[in-house]
Design a protein that fits this description.
315 residues, mainly alpha, two-stranded antiparallel sheet
Amino acid sequence: MKLQEYITAASTAIEKNKFEGQPNNLYDPLNYIIRLGGKRIRPALALIGYHTLKPDFETAIPLAKAIEYFHNFSLMHDDIMDKSPLRRGQQSVHLKWNEATAILSGDLMLIECYKELTKMKNVLILEKFNQMAEEVCRGQQLDMDFESNEKVTISQYIEMIRLKTSVLLGKSLSMGALLAHADQILINAFEKFGELMGIGFQIMDDYLDTFGESAKTGKKIGQDILDKKRALPFLLAENTLSRKEKKEFIALFSSYDEEKLVNEVRAIFIDHKIDQQTMDLAKKYFKEAEEILNTLTVDKTALNELVAFLRIRNY
């Protein structure tokens, strides 16, 4: 099957469900964020992992839904922590409603996630899912810690995005295979492949946040700069600029003109080829993911399509 077929199957299962209950303003945010869409890569990976060994993937639908619900739960809370005004080109939940509602609705989304997990009655899946959830929380805390840490290394940053973003991709694929009773070698290979692909994916997100176009990304370009976030372009600049240039670079962040700040920082990044360095690092991880994929004898059609899509994505 092609990648789009898995994405369509996952999207159909996820979007046909409507969250209902009282009070409405607790459940409405769940329906709102789910129907904002998204790429549905994570639930599609669960279906791919399962379908690798089984003729259908209906058994994996609750897993796919649980993964997407968990992802959206984390987005609702992340948007509050990051003060993000947009999610998929629309108002973030905490701005459309308020922060308290976004927190509580996010909690409810997590409960809906575990409702789906219990349908499978599979302790091994539950254990792996809990491990993944814990790692994502660790990654988010590291991301926040780095905001006040002036000595973040590139390797520390890569580990943070592995936890925050990549383990969800890796375990989505490997949990699908686990549910289909794959051997441990394939499960481990799928997990490592997903993590490497996820690191490349997140590095591309860092790239697009600074060098992308808002009309394509659905996000405000330069938000990491405005937040003084120690994202990858910032860290690469610290390693590239001379002492004098670094001092001048840091001084820019005292500016109160947001547009000027973003434009000047972007100009420095481009002048020192930070955009190319960021892109090259993303390509490195995508290449390593492909190398793992090439060792496998299972049907890799959809996974090869996914790597190709993520490598050239501009949104």
